[in-house]
Amino acid sequence: VxxxxxxxxxxxxxxxxxxxxxxxxxxxxxxxxxxxxxESNHSQAQKMAEISxxxxxxxxxxxxxxxxxxIFKIEILNLHQNDSGFYYCGLITLFEPDKVMExxxxxxVVTAAPEKTNATDEPEMEEGNPxxxxxxxxxxxxxxxxxxVLLIFGYLTVTYRxxxxxxxxxxxxxxxxxxxxxxxxxxxxxYGVLEFQRDQCTQVSPEIWTVDQTEYATIIFPEExxxxxxxxxxxxx
Length: 237
Known about the structure:
The chain is an alpha+beta fold. The protein has a domain at 2-111: Sandwich (Immunoglobulin-like), CATH 2.60.40.10. 22% of the residues lie in helices and 26% in strands. The chain contains three helices and eleven strands, in the order E-E-E-E-E-E-E-E-E-E-E-H-H-H. Strands 2, 4, 5, 9, 10 and 11 form a six-stranded mixed sheet that branches. A five-stranded antiparallel sheet has the order 1-3-8-7-6, with no helix packed on it.
């Protein structure tokens, strides 16, 4: 007697199916029945269901039993986590009613049911979220407001600094520098000692003088005038 599959891992709420295969050396139409057992945490086995060779399929709220001659099938419905444990089948023949031929153990593990998402809530959440273009418009408005605030702050800062500079100046003092009169270049020529002779002086008509040709000369008289040879001759005469 063999039982398969050897292990099943299923979520709660589903169903588990095991198959028990029997082989008899001399199957001459003898009667036999098959029992299904469950062990929880290696405790004493509990009989779950029974089906004989000639019985039709049976169904209860928890199990579905099917007989396919040498293969028996059991389907466990509406799994719960307390259905986890070890299952096996036992064959009982008519000529040896007190003897049970047990199969190997198969392990069933029932996990927690996956959380169900409410499909009706998702559209509501999507409707509650603003569209993408509204988000873009709001972002643009925030950026523009930030630029305006920065410009106002810069203007106020410059104005405050200018006002502070004006307050630091004393009364009656202008910030502008005094304009100096233009500098006129004056050339100086050293003519040495000049002697004036009356007879050699020639008068020039005032009409000949022009403003553009006017020149200025600075005559420096020394404290003691040296006597030149020419002046000595004149004094002797």
